[in-house]
Amino acid sequence: MSKIAFIFPGQGSQKVGMGAEFVANDEASKAFYDQADQALNIKLSTLMLEGPQEELTLTYHAQPALLTTGVMIASKLMEAGITPDYTAGHSLGEYGSFVIAGSLSFEEAVKIVHKRGLYMNEAVPAGQGAMAAILGMDEEPLKEVCAEITNNGDLVQLANLNCPGQIVISGTKAGVEKASQLAKEKGAKRAIPLDVSGPFHSELMKDAAIKLEKEIEQVEISQPNIPIISNVHAGILEDVESIKKEMVEQVYSPVQWERDVRKMLECGVTTFIECGPGKVLSGLVKKIDRSVKTYCVYDIATFEEVVKELKG
Predict the structure, then answer these.
(1) Among 10, 208, 234, 300, which has the minimal tally of Cβ within 10 Å of its Cβ?
(2) Are 183 and 175 in contact, with CB atoms under 8 Å apart?
(3) Is the peptide bond before 52 cis (omega within 30 degrees of 0)?
(4) Catalytic annotation on 114?
(5) Statement to judge: residues 25 and 174 lie in one domain
(6) 220 and 112: one domain?
């Protein structure tokens, strides 16, 4: 029997108007947005629905905003009788998995990802870190490129292993620039600088991880009732301690998204439902295996399409 995975996008997918149709037409959906506002004591929902985009894109706003929309959509799908057999998220998106798997309450998750965003924002002053997508180069040669630049004094490392031929690097501004140039000299097709506020998923985020670890110790985390695929090692997170460890390590460790998807394929997943704005993860899944079904649920029309196809 085919299995379903819910997948949750990470930072970069946020956009003004995210979830607006659900909120306007459904009290239960609106309740998630109201709860996020109350938990953070800020008008996050106004930023999500009205903008401005620049404010919404700030790390400490984008993270709880994406979590809120993703969990709201996933909850609506589950109410309609579509339950995931597995779940995974890209970076920040992993917190959506923690919530729908029953390991973390929505309110606690909103608070944690807001602090996660603040700590990541504080870890490296603006302009000192960078990220870039390297296209058309395999993992091992790109790892060698990063090691060469790092050994010469400018830290840079693999950050997101997204799909064949697409790997994001992260580190100091100089390190990323030098590694991008060297990668192109060694055969990479393109190096695209990313519009991000910090060197996420690099060793430069360790201070943020240390601060976050103290917060996590105060939070009640439960045994998951749906298997969660780990960003850090692409295995299954099966207990409370492994989830706590994951929350800390994934701040500065590479996101193993290609391996995550391959793990779910191994486990029999044939249908991936992306919960939240955008289609980034669905596109990556298709680049890993074109034979699987992917759906993106971000408005009422896409929600109804999935329910019709999967529930008949």
Answers:
(1) 300
(2) no
(3) yes
(4) no
(5) no
(6) yes
